Queue: 2 jobs
Job 1
Amino acid sequence: MALDEAKLTEFVHKALADIGGALTAGLVVLGDKLGLYKALGAHGPLSSVELAQRTGTAERYVREWLAAQAAAGYIEYDAATGRYHLNPEQVEALTNEDSPACVLGGFQGMLAALRAEPKIAEGFRSGRGVGWHEHDPALFEGTRRFFHPGYAANLVSKWLPALEGVVAKLEAGARVADVGCGHGASTMLMARAFPRSEFVGYDYHAPSIERARELAAAAGPGRVRFEVAAAKTYPGTGFDLVTFFDCLHDMGDPVGAATHVRESLAPDGTWMIVEPFAHDRVEDNLTPLGRIFYGASTFVCTPASLSQEVGLALGAQAGEARLREVVLQGGFHRFRRATETPFNIILEARP
Ligand SMILES: C[S@@+](CC[C@H](N)C(=O)[O-])C[C@H]1O[C@@H](n2cnc3c(N)ncnc32)[C@H](O)[C@@H]1O
């Protein structure tokens, strides 16, 4: 086939935009870590000298960062004054941690994931996995920061009410296990909303459980605790609700996990599974969002699953049909999509 010069130019332009995007990941993490966005948001318009003074940073670095961020469309530049500022949308996405529009955690987590590239390349050659715990710790923090605003906006107000009879049980006083809880963002949101219920967050990753305990202590008293335990062996039975937030596909043996969940549930209990939004067929996931999920899945989710027993490696874009198979193989009889957002599917399984 003859090479089409116009198409080649178009492709190279697209790739150049992606190279700029890769650098933006590092630039955003710097702006976040060094307080550059917060200072610009609170005190802008600022010159590089003023921003450096306010943040205790070196002006020459700040000057270059400002120009790079203005070229990327992450901050605004006024040529007449030589000063930079954030517009209201940039303030929201780059300084408001509680906003579902906040992108800081996403960049923090994904830049951390990229640091594992040498280990992942080795995994491609050997077929061996790379565990969640083998990543740069910024991945764990970034994941919490990325997911928390979405959970805060949806979990209590939309996702739990979409499950059959669960909110009534939680209001009356139920026992809940949040498995693969990471830093416990979802566990704490539920515990705060339903003070009569008792919540335990489990994760196999001890440093995440330690961090969840610190965050829970800072948030004040509540009927919530965190324990190190894996999805197939966590203790306790008779749970009214077991939740899995964005972690089933990270597990080596999701069928084994499903079986254990069923055994740990009360006879009329519910298993809530939150997974990244995905269609069943690859061709339907070739979207901007699918690009992020498949990319994260190559660096984090698939290697994580391959590092554990069985290594089923569902991937972050498994789709509902594949997840249904896993859940039914675990001995559940009822399964349905309870609801969805542009980013998540919320599945309900009952024994
Ligand atoms: C993408 S993170 C999601 C964390 C948290 N649920 C959230 O939504 O913020 C996946 C989590 O699954 C945990 N995990 C992976 N395999 C596990 C297993 N077999 N048992 C328990 N936790 C596991 C990891 O340690 C990690 O905290």
Job 2
Amino acid sequence: MSATIGEALAAASERLRAAGSETPRLDAEVLLGWAVGADRTVIVAHQEAPVGADAAARFEAAVERRAAGEPVAYIRGFKEFHGLAFSVDPRSLIPRPETEAIVDAAFAEVMRRLTERPGEAGAGPGGGGDPIRVADVGTGSGAIAVALAVALRNRRVTMGRHVTILATDASADALDVARENAVGHAAADGMRFVEADLLPPVLPDDGARLDVVLANLPYVRSDAIAGLPIAASFEPRDALDGGPDGLGPIRSLLARLPDALTPDGVALIEIGADQGDSAPSAAAESLPGWTATVEPDLAGLPRVLRVRRG
Ligand SMILES: C[S@@+](CC[C@H](N)C(=O)[O-])C[C@H]1O[C@@H](n2cnc3c(N)ncnc32)[C@H](O)[C@@H]1O
């Protein structure tokens, strides 16, 4: 006789607790939901229902992968970010909830620029003229670029005409995931994917400068990588390792800003919660005369480094 949902959850929670998961019951519920093709809330509400043989086999295999430390998102193949489901696999980092702060700040920044532009009668947000040029540097799964494009589209901004997004990554594999997510969310219009070290030497549109540069680059100190939860060991190291003080890639990007940004352009860069002082100091050193401020995420932790001229 097949086990009930309640029995399967109890056994899997025990297995995951013994394997060291910090959230064994939640992991079990989410994975069983995935295995039976139902939402976790359905699982929680129907403890007496039997688990079919195929679903039970899928669940067992998933629990073993999780017990070995693999993140739930890689096992299920997707992660929710900014209200959207992103395909994820070991080619790219799993987007983190705190990164939604960059998307929200970017959305506000782009909308402000569009509404402050001299309008062209009847042309909608932003009126005529050049599009607002945005770059998402180190796009990974495309989380920031795609979530921003979808949020703008929901406000009737026409991607391509009003806003373009250049999504870059040093990893061709990650760019493939980003492309898949952009297409999956019908958000590829006005978006370009370029393999580059930070930014291409010549920006698209004959080198036209960028209005808004977004980035969530690696910012974990090299010596802290080994202390991350085991799930992080399944993610690409190049997506995490920020060098000896964690600020290496961010410093390199700061150095590119004078040539890349328009005179009134802005960069919004994700930082670690412990970099609220060191990141603006790095910006002050790299970019004398510029302004660097830090904005918090929803948890109130330092998260977004905002950099502009003057
Ligand atoms: C922390 S992950 C962030 C991914 C995604 N933006 C997100 O928020 O989920 C950093 C990404 O930057 C990329 N990266 C690291 N160094 C880079 C560089 N020098 N130029 C371009 N991309 C880089 C990595 O491949 C990885 O995809």
